[in-house]
Amino acid sequence: MIPYKSIAVFRLSALGDVLMFLPTVRALQRNFPETKITWIISKPAFDLVRTIEEIEFIVIDKPNSPTDYWRLKKLFQHRTFDVLIAAQASFRAHTIIPLIKARQKIGYDKIRGQELHSWVVNEQIPFRKVHTLEGFMQFAEYLGARDLQVEWSLTLDCHAKIWVTEKKQEWGVGNKLVLINPAASKSERSWHAQGYIEVIKHLQAKLPVTVVLCGGPGKHDRWLADAIMQEVAVIDLVGKTTLPQLLALIAAADLLLCPDTGPSHMAAAVNTPVIALHAVTRPEISGPYGQLDKVISKYEEAKKAFARSKKQQARDWFDKNHHPEVMHLITAQDVIARL
Question: Is residue 150 one of the residues assigned to a domain?
Fold first, then answer.
């Protein structure tokens, strides 16, 4: 008798978190091969993992109106899962989870499960001071999985791979391919343009290298890329790639340099060396898994320099250094030394 006939996993976004959640899904597949696994996810995160086989995906739009919630209720009303893994703790997630019927709804402890998370689940995994990926893996462990090996096995989109091959031919073969994703989703986590400029000048002086800027279509991404390109000659792909193309490009690169942002975890998932820059966030929580030795972290220095004094609490593990100057603690020489 199989332990579970159906397991639904609820992780809608963000891009980095979805990729860090993927090894948990893989562990569920290995440990419960006869169980039907359904992943409830949102776009564009789905575009990163859509090539996974033997998984049912339910792709939903994040609801913004009563009509949207009515549609979600209709979508789930005739389905009941044995288990729902509620691996997202946010206000909007907590308005969706009650619409999904499951005998077991497993969520986070009270420390990680903020915003009334405990109200929408009936079981909770215990708190541990672990990396986000390992925190996700706790769900598989809680269900009795014994093989908790971290495995992504992420198949790249075939059309995206062809696109990368054509781009590399266009740029010329033989050079090292270095990607720089200058901006983070939150500007306070982004490094400054002058730092990237110094690093690129060093690379171009020392190596036969093709430097490509990548990133999203946001205004901050564009502004930072333009500032860099005023000083150095690079290839500009900022806001010009789909997510499958960006993932395939990172897989083909010799190195990625970026702050704490989604592409850092993309690189970890496809085993591309990545130098991630951390000062706002603790890399032991959100750094590229398996490559923390390459991280340049000023988190502790920033905490001493900018953090507000307060009584120590369990949630201090998740503290962020919110200050406009924290990323300036990282110098170009720090990055060059790591290169």
Answer: no
What whole-number distance in Å separates Cα of residue 148 and Cα of residue 141?
7
At which of 115, 142, 169 does a domain end? 142
231 plus 164 within the same structural domain:
yes
Give the CATH number for residue 134: 3.40.50.2000
Per-residue pLDDT of the chain (339 residues; tens, 9 = 90+): 578 999 999 999 999 999 999 999 999 999 999 999 999 999 989 999 999 999 999 999 999 999 999 999 999 999 999 999 999 999 999 999 999 999 999 999 999 998 889 999 999 999 999 999 999 999 999 999 999 999 999 999 999 999 999 999 999 878 899 999 999 988 999 999 999 999 999 999 999 999 999 999 999 999 999 999 999 999 999 999 999 999 999 999 999 999 999 999 999 999 999 999 999 999 999 999 999 999 999 999 999 888 665 544 445 889 999 998 999 999 999 999 999
Q: Show contacts of 305-314: CB within 8 Å, 24+ apart.
A: 305/329, 314/111, 314/127
**In the structure encoding, which two tokens stand for residue 282, read together?**
């603790």
Q: Fill in the amino acid letter for 70.
A: W
Which of 111, 142, 173 is the last residue in one of the domains? Answer: 142
122 backbone dihedrals φ, ψ, rounded to 5°: -120, 0
197 in the same domain as 324: yes
Contact (Cβ atoms closer than 8 angstroms) between residue 136 and residue 20: yes
Structural domain of 23: 6-142
pTM score, whole prediction: 0.94
For the chain, how many structural domains are there in total?
A: 2
Gap between the Cα atoms of 223 and 271, Å rounded:
29
